[in-house]
Write a sequence for this structure.
């Protein structure tokens, strides 16, 4: 069982920045792919970024490419999502998702709210 805790959300003006954190416990962190998803009110959850178990293996959704950066610190069991040049349409609950390399099981955190004012 993998337990995920997100933090770092908040209220920011358009053009501002935030850094979200996802701390994982309960499994060998380096064997986890960590994804960030987001869900705006009234909309479906959508993929934002991924940090896979390989070194420097990252993937971004086109809508955040060039503005968001995902990184991981395996020593701290933490994945970060740096959100730059935020737009009001980035307002959503951001969720951390872990995928086990060995079992394929998926785990979700409780989410952290990001609100961008215009």
């Amino acid at each position: 069982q993998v337990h995920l805790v997100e933090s770092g959300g908040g209220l920011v003006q358009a053009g501002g920045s935030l850094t979200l954190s996802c701390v994982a416990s309960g499994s060998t962190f380096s064997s986890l792919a960590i994804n960030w998803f987001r869900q705006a009110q009234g909309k479906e959850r959508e993929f934002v970024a991924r940090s896979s178990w390989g070194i420097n293996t990252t993937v971004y959704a086109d809508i955040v490419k060039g503005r968001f950066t995902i990184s991981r610190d395996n020593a701290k069991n933490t994945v970060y999502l740096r959100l730059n040049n935020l737009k009001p349409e980035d307002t959503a609950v951001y969720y951390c998702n872990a995928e086990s390399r060995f079992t394929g099981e998926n785990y979700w955190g409780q989410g952290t709210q990001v609100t961008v004012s215009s």
Q: What stands out?
A: The chain has a mean pLDDT of 94. The first strand starts at residue 3 and ends at 7. DSSP finds no helices and eleven strands in the chain.
